[in-house]
């Protein structure tokens, strides 16, 4: 693999892994396999990517196709059958991740771009209530599925999912305020 692609792959890998986990019902092992297949396919078809295009959306398209191919070959029905759900997941990933990576393309003359954002993120996570912070830590830091986190937190999958949704919204608002950026 070439170095620029390796850099992009390492930056987008967490997003693609999380996206695929959501498409395969939280199966971390299957999502990891499909993530690897996604990046192999992306590297092989890199010439088809339009320069200046949305790299995250392009990768998610490949990932979505890998997930569909898996379900077809396994002769199972996919857990996500409503296209509106998949589109909703795409919108969330577009909003949260693509803006961060689009800003990377802009040259920053001053400051530590990642350091400033990492510090703001840590500060905002620290401001969350204990129950929201615990859900974030279990799912994002410890890479657990909603089911696994629910067991650890003595809760339900639905409740953990709701906590994560609230936490993401609070973190997004907090980071936006701290960095003086807008996600509108």
Tell me what you see in this structure:
With 184 residues, this protein is mainly alpha-helical. The protein folds into 2 domains: 1-81, RNA polymerase sigma factor, region 2, helix turn helix motif (Rna Polymerase Sigma Factor, Chain: A); 107-184, Winged helix-like DNA-binding domain superfamily/Winged helix DNA-binding domain (Arc Repressor Mutant, subunit A, Orthogonal Bundle), CATH 1.10.10.10. The protein is built from 8 helices and no strands. It has helices at residues 3-23, 28-44, 55-73, 83-105, 113-126, 130-141, 146-152, 157-179. Helix 1 (3-23) packs antiparallel against helix 4 (83-105), helix 2 (28-44) crosses helix 3 (55-73) and helix 6 packs across helix 8. The radius of gyration is 17 Å and the shape is globular. The chain starts with a helix and ends in a 5-residue tail after the last helix. 20% of the residues are buried.
Give the low-confidence spans: 104-110
Q: What overall form do the CA principal axes indicate?
A: globular
Q: Count of DSSP helices?
A: 8
> Mean pLDDT, rounded to whole units?
77
Give the helix/strand class.
mainly alpha
Supply the number of structural domains. 2
CATH architecture of the largest domain: Orthogonal Bundle
**SSE string:** HHHHHHHH
Largest sheet: none
In percent terms, what proportion of residues is strand?
under 5%
**Kindly, what is the distance between the CA atoms of the first and last residues, rounded to a whole number of angstroms?**
36 Å
Number of strands: 0
CATH superfamily grouping of the largest domain: RNA polymerase sigma factor, region 2, helix turn helix motif
Helix content class: over 70%
CATH topology of the largest domain: Rna Polymerase Sigma Factor, Chain: A
Rg (CA only):
17 Å
Q: What is the CATH top level name of the largest domain?
A: Mainly Alpha
**What oligomerization state is this entry in?**
single chain
């Amino acid at each position: 693999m070439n170095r620029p692609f390796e850099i992009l792959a390492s930056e987008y890998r967490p997003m693609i892994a999380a996206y695929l986990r959501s498409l395969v019902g939280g199966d971390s092992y299957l999502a990891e396999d499909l993530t690897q297949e996604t990046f192999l396919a992306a590297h092989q078809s890199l010439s088809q990517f339009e320069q200046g295009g949305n790299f995250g959306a392009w990768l998610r398209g490949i990932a979505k196709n890998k997930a569909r191919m898996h379900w077809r070959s396994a002769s199972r029905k996919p857990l996500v059958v409503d296209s509106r759900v998949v589109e909703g997941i795409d919108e969330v990933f577009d909003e949260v991740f693509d803006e961060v990576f689009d800003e990377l393309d802009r040259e920053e003359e001053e400051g530590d771009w990642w350091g400033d954002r990492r510090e703001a993120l840590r500060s905002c996570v620290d401001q969350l209530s204990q129950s929201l912070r615990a859900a974030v830590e279990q799912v994002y830091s410890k890479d657990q599925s909603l089911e696994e986190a629910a067991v650890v937190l003595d809760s339900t999958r639905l409740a953990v999912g709701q906590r994560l949704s609230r936490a993401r919204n609070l973190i997004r608002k907090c980071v936006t305020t701290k960095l003086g950026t807008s996600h509108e």
